[in-house]
UniProtKB/TrEMBL annotation:
Keywords: Membrane, Transmembrane, Transmembrane helix. The chain crosses the membrane at residues 123-142, 154-173, 179-198. It comes from the Bacteria. SUPFAM superfamilies: ADP-ribosylation. InterPro entries: Rhs_assc_core. Residues 203-268 are annotated as: Disordered. NCBIfam families: Rhs_assc_core. This is RHS repeat-associated core domain-containing protein.
């Protein structure tokens, strides 16, 4: 709902990527709105909408109270009416009255203090170094670090802390905060390269030790060989030595005669008696 000096009406606005109105539609009427790069409006096509350059509220004399009245911007003069208190050494630059550093096509300034989007840098710094700080702290408690790695991890924690302090002060508008961000980021970057070099060297040493270590292989069991013609095979006792050897004295045994001719039964009976006698002799000796 846009309010004109005399009446109230509803307008449909078509804007560009910086929210500057290009067309306004009032019922069946469609009017083109022309703005200069610095926001100056053409007097040939008067606008009914109070939303003007970069979506800011337009005063009746085409003035813009940026930052809720922090500074007044005059698009006809292409400059502010009051100087930037951050100039000349900080965001305002050398020209304390310039709008967006003289580049209104690619930048906007809705606060009257500095270019929109400059706070994205400190926010990105806070996000990045918060992750790096958490990674370094977890690595210190949950991994085994010794010597150079432990020292590098401590320096990384200090660098991330400096960057976080710089990012916080930059959001508050403090002067010189960007230097803290640069210093902390430089320290963290150098430590990251050092840790990578130390880890690479350690892995190289492990691989060298593993490569130079002799392979432990078990000797295969001996396989019996077949003697070639003209070669005498070793005795059976040397190839397969007995586990336990015992000496048993056997006395001469009488041989009973009585078999006649092919008397097989008589020979078998005599053999049976002989074996029985041998068994009895062996049993008596063991006792």
């Amino acid at each position: 709902m846009m309010q004109a000096p005399t009446d109230t009406r509803t307008l449909l606005l078509a804007t560009d990527r910086q929210h500057t109105p290009l067309f306004e539609v009032d019922g069946a009427d469609c009017r083109a709105l022309v703005h200069s790069p610095h926001g100056g409006r053409s007097a040939i096509h008067p606008a009914l909408a109070r939303m003007g350059f970069t979506g800011q509220f337009r005063e009746p004399r085409d003035r813009y109270q940026l930052g809720n009245g922090h500074r007044v911007y005059n698009p006809t003069l292409m400059r502010f009416h009051s100087p930037d208190r951050y100039s000349p050494f900080d965001r305002g630059g050398l020209n304390a009255y310039a709008y967006c550093g003289g580049d209104p096509v690619n930048h906007t300034d809705s606060s009257g203090r500095f270019i929109d989007g400059e706070q994205a840098g400190p926010l990105l710094t806070l996000f990045l170094h918060s992750g790096l700080l958490m990674n370094s702290v977890f690595s210190m408690f949950f991994t085994k670090m010794k010597g150079s790695l432990q020292l590098a991890n401590g320096i990384a924690i200090a660098g991330s802390g400096i960057s976080l302090a710089g990012g916080g002060t930059a959001l508050g508008g403090e002067e010189g905060a960007q230097n803290l961000i640069y210093m902390g980021t430089m320290i963290s970057g150098m430590v990251a390269h050092s840790r990578f070099a130390i880890n690479t060297r350690g892995e190289y040493k492990k691989r060298q030790l593993k490569r130079n270590k002799p392979a432990e292989t078990s000797a295969p069991p001996p396989t019996p060989t077949t003697p070639t013609p003209g070669q005498t095979s070793p005795p059976f006792d040397k190839l397969f030595p007995p586990k336990r050897a015992s000496r048993t004295s056997i006395k001469s045994l009488p041989i009973f005669s009585g078999t006649r001719g092919g008397d097989v039964n008589g020979a078998g009976e005599q053999l049976r008696l002989t074996l029985k006698l041998l068994r009895d002799r062996g049993a008596s000796q063991n006792v």
